[in-house]
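ping. complex inputs:
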Amino acid sequence: MADPVLSVTNLTIRERNGHILVRDVTLAVPRGGVLTLIGETGSGKSLIAQAVFGLLPPGLEASGQIMLAGRPPIAAGDSRALSGLWREQIMLIPQEPSLALDPTMKIRRQMALAGLDDEAVDPALAAFDLPVHSVDLYPFALSGGMAQRVLVASALGVGAPIIVADEPTKGLDAERVTQAIATLRQLAAAGRSLLVITHDRHMAEALPGTLAIIREGVIVERGDSARVLAAPESDYGRTWLEADPRHWSRSARCCDMSDLALSAHGLAFGWPGAPLLFKGLDLHLPRRSILAISGASGGGKSTLADILLGLRRPLAGSVEWAGADIVADPSAIRRFRQRYQKLHQDPIQSFVPHLSLARQFTALESVKTGLSVARALPPLLERLKVKPDLMDRLPREISGGEAQRLALARILLLDPTVIIADEPTSRLDPVVQRETMALLRQLVDDAGLGLVLISHDRALLRSVADDEIQLDAFKT
Amino acid sequence: MSVAKATNTMLRVILLRVGQALATAALLASLCFAFVHMLPGDLALRVAAARVGDERVTPETADRIRREEGLDRPLIVQYGQWMKSLARGDLGRSLLSGKPVVQELAYHGAFTLQLGLIGWLLSYLIALPLGVFAGFRPGGIVDRATDVLAVTLASLPTFLVGIGLVTLFALTLRWLPPAGFRTSAHMVLPAVTLALSLVAFSIPIIRNAVLEVRAAFFMTYARVKGLSPPAAFRHHGIRNAAIPVVTFAALQFAFVIDGFVVIETLFNYPGLGELLVKALIARDVPVIMGAGLVIGFSFAIVSLTADLLRLWLDPRALEAVRV
Amino acid sequence: MIHKLALTRRSALALAVCAATLAGFPSLVQAQEAGVLRVASPWEYTSNEPTDTGFLMTRMQIAETLVMVEPDGRLVGGIAESWSVSDDKLTWRFKIRPGVLFHDGTPVTTEAAAASLRRSLSGESMQQIPVDQLTTDGDTLVLKTKTPFSHLPAVLVDYASVVLAPASWGADGKVSKVIGTGPFRITAIDGKNVIELARFDGYWGEKPKVARARHTAIPNGDTRTNVAVAGDQDIIFTTVPSATPRIDAAGQMKVVNLTIPRLRVMAFNSGLPQFSDVRVRRAISMAIDRKGIASAVLRHPGSAATQLLPAALPDWHDATLSAYAFDVAGANALLDQAGWTRGADGVRTKDGVRLAATLLTISNRPELTVMGTAMQAQLKAIGMELNVEPGPSAAIPAAIQAGTMQMTMFARTYVNVPEVVATIIPDFTRERSTWGTLNWPGRARIKALSDEYVQSFDESRKASLRREMLKIIHEEMPVTAVSWFEHTVAVNKRVKGLVIDPFEMRYMLHKVTLD
Amino acid sequence: MNRVVKRMRQFPKSIWALAALAGIAVLGPVLAPLDPTAQDLLRVMEAPSSQNWLGTDHVGRDILSRVLSGAPHSLGLAVLCVALASGTGLALGLAASNSGAFLRAVIMRSADLMLAFPGLLLALLLAGFLGGGIWPLLIGLNLALWPQYARMTEAVATGVLRQGHVEAARLAGFPERVILLRHVLPPVLRAILPLATLGVGQAIMSISALGFLGLGLKPPTPEWGAMINELLPFLSEGLIQMAAPCLMIFACVLSLTLAGRALAARMEAGSDG
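pong. complex structure:
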């Protein structure tokens, strides 16, 4: 680190009430190199980027120093002085690119305002694999990935030697992530110094240079990227790395087709006026097994889940619950309703926001005869490793992981046969994701459930599922 | 989205809205017809009283008017007649003055339009600078002062504002005439009264629009890209802030009409509100229906204008239109 | 887009400067046009038809009738210079005044006057004349009646009979343009509110002193008050009585009062069980504090009525009649005597009928509602419950026609023509009058008396018939006057020579000069 | 108990002002020292005295008593109007969000249509037809106000119905009635409350405007707008008498506006957390 072009020294960020969010962070971006800062949601990594630009949200205070090569150091709280570095010295590629573009102005004019004259625009677009006509569009017509590349192209047009990319892959699917990585490598190749902030392992692996892992506002480990990823020294780094589904041990496939919890035959569905999403789809879910359904977003995964749950009628085909065809005989839905349940993508939203959790659980007694929540819940909570005192809180006062386990507890109280889990871990951090998946597996094995797991993350599915259906295969 | 497609969308919006406007207007007028005839009391007698004066009205006058105006025909025939002439663009004649309803509406409508436009313009002359300034310095002295002003004005009924202004400027200071419509001096107090009632609601809207746009990340990002704060607001702020303001300004039209009834009575101003109130008292059916038609239609036209403005200002709206 | 916005902002700024200059210019009120007499009244010019708005034509002295009335009550010649009646009292001869010109310069011919009169005779306001035939004879208009009709000249004062030029009528038989003979001619009409007038130099009589005049209709009473306080007109007719001190205090205009033969009367449905007994009607009259109402509500103690008509009409005012009494104890005694007993809620009942009524008043005469609420409070003291209901003016004749009227209070002029019997007949001789009695059994007696009165040309006989009619109405109280009207006219300091006509036929503007 | 006190401390001041006004609306007629309709024609337009704290009006009635007794008519009627309108809007909005495309379109399009017609004018029309009184006000303002509540209800309810907890409740077998009461109604009511608070202020102004135009409640009802109308000719001699009803209207609408804003801000803050 002989020649850092940007160095952050002893940066501490605290709330007005003194609560510290980022503690004593020191970082250096080497000239022409890449520094990747990786951490979970809420670890404080984005605050560091904001502090470098003097753009901390109101109510937060920063101390420490920020220094650019060849310039006197600037106090981290001096946002006016920091704003003097914008464009000329440092440039930001923000997260949520759609928010960074004026929704009422065409791209060409926004690029022009960023300093790219007309001749410079076309090569810039070509360099980032953007169609030429995209400059004549309004931002809303761009996909997230395109907007991202527009911002990168604009940033490239700005001469700043240092570029900070804040969560450049947030909300992108796997293919777009690869593109984004390529884009950043292009920037690095063009000689810019990069500070990349991410929660994405793949990105960290793909970028050369230095890697720093941040946890709860403290840097826990740093070093050469390849070295840290191969053999993390800190406990946290290890745990985190192991949470990658690719590192999980694969489950054994079982296929006892004699004991089916759910089956479907010849299913077809499509929206009016659009081609069918799928047709001729068969599936079999034996008890004690996990069936994975994968497919591209918008491909009908959630619709299929609704059909399997009896919430939506297919255009053709049958769905059998314990041998009864709920498509032909909708009254069967009412009979078996509580046995077929769903685990939602957003666990906090699956609870009524204005009622305490305890009340929501007690209410179940009115729909399930013979259920005593007071008796049945405590052992369940213990098994799911949920602290019982959470029950007095409102849903928004608990974490996503806790909420997902409580959602599971609520389903289990109804004594289900099948649980359909729609992207149950996509909003959870990797470590929590791993724990939740392990728990689901254990429940399937112990309680004899059938689990349908819907996700776009093939690696995750492959590591836990006994069988997999790719929805794209049934496209018309 | 291509230019042709955008134009096409615009065209469809216009056609749809004009169709809606016509339907709304006809429906309102028909409702008025139903209302007037559902009511107890002798219609012809009401008309007679309004025509010849209360004290000279006799049952004979009422009978003559009933005969002359065809009020003795079955209702469905009268309604059919009205719809038929409406299709020809003829709104009939006032039972009171005998003049064509179109002429009455045009005469009074012109006054209302004039007062409405001046009042509306004036309100934005007051609200825009104050709202924008307050939005730039939230929590500052101007922001707090305009907030107090807006809340105060919002809590005062229009007639109290009018009485206050008349008492101060016409009766005490004697700067302006208290009532009438003949000169521009006569317009000042009614227009200011109207403007103040509008300002109460437009200031916070403008302030919040400016505040929101200034807080938007694309404004910050524009500065990161190197624009100065004024340049960033000029390029990215004005248009975005104008979107909610335009939508609201159209909504205010309904309030403008409400305000007219009170203001025109208070200032003896011969606008549509006054015409309508008089026609109601006299049960002048053709004028009531005509006024219903005009008010319904003009409201629809104002919303159409607002829609088009919004489409022009906000390309996202164009995308969201589902005709 | 940005350019356009900037442009609007710039022009908006310019407008703001203009508006500020306008608002800051403190002498706009003083923009009185020299020589223009500005007159305001509540009355709108709604149409050109003399039957509808003829009163404005005579008041603003645009058009004239054959016979006119002077402020002192004398009938004088208008378009007709003089008149006479034949010995059989059936043929009237009106000699047309020579040299009278219409505003378009054409002379008034006997034919033109006859044509004009024929149209008005067909209208219902003059239907009481038993017309047989209308012919012309040289410069004389000959009107034959079927039966003797002694007050024919008085009826011809009716504004519906104004004489208009033949060119006034359009092809559809309606008046398209008002071409009269009066001292003022119309130069412009702006909507219903404003009539612009100029002196008619070819006028046959006393020419106006002012060259131009303008009539502005201000229907809202509060607005008239404001205009009077600001002094923004020269003469304002019919200001709100209660605002008189305020107008006077402002110092711009002075309010002049004149008691006129217009009354605020209360009428009963004598067919209702509550009011069929004359003692109840009398008790109600005795419970009303007319003086209190006159001084508190009307701000003019002298306007409290003592009998039906004021002394301003010497023929129809009988000084020997005892004045309406205010005697709550007496009223209670009368009701006790009539068998009305107080219930637990303080309201009297008799045979299961509550002494209660809804009093219809007219909402565009706000003082009536106030008087109604005052009476409501006063009648409580004799155990009567009154529910005041202001409504549009036509609601009252409508309720009388429908027979649903219980009690009503309204303003009524008894000199639509300067002969009171012309009002007595429609108001007191019918089962359902237009404005007045309903189901009153005494109507037959008034009918007999008025029939004789109309046919009689003997002045002393007529005087005794008048006294008899007045006595019956005074004692039986099918209606009872609450107050006489004070004609309130706000007059600007710069106005000199104004004469107020108690008959409200003419505003006498030709006598006015401006400083 | 402590929690109650703590929560009450968090209420903005405007809510307390509102509570005081509501108290006046309920107790006003009881607090009135004299009969609000008792006249004394010998003591008209008198300045404030120990007997008549705010003076007397043009027929000698006690202003203080009239202002106090007017509260149930002005404030109470406004609350009634808004309660009726928000109830109608709530019911129709819920119906729209729970039903098929056709019914939803019918309800929401008629809401748009009614929104096009100004409320005061509507009440005025009805008052002109029906001749004043309570009904034109109730019907007219209801017709004018319900669409905004229907729109708000429909927007919030549709949003809530799409959330996971509703689906979870359906899957758990809860009946639709329970879902409506437990899941949908509370957020809808929270959204409507600030709107309704502001609406009451608007209704007070509409009622007083009609009273001022002489088309409102029937005399001698001490409605504030009608009082202003009655006292207007006496402005120069009865400033205090005139000021009393004006101030009551102003105070009511002001505290309602501030309370509505505070509620709306609270709701916004609540939805963030």
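Residues 67-272 of chain D form a domain with the MetI-like fold fold (CATH 1.10.3720.10).
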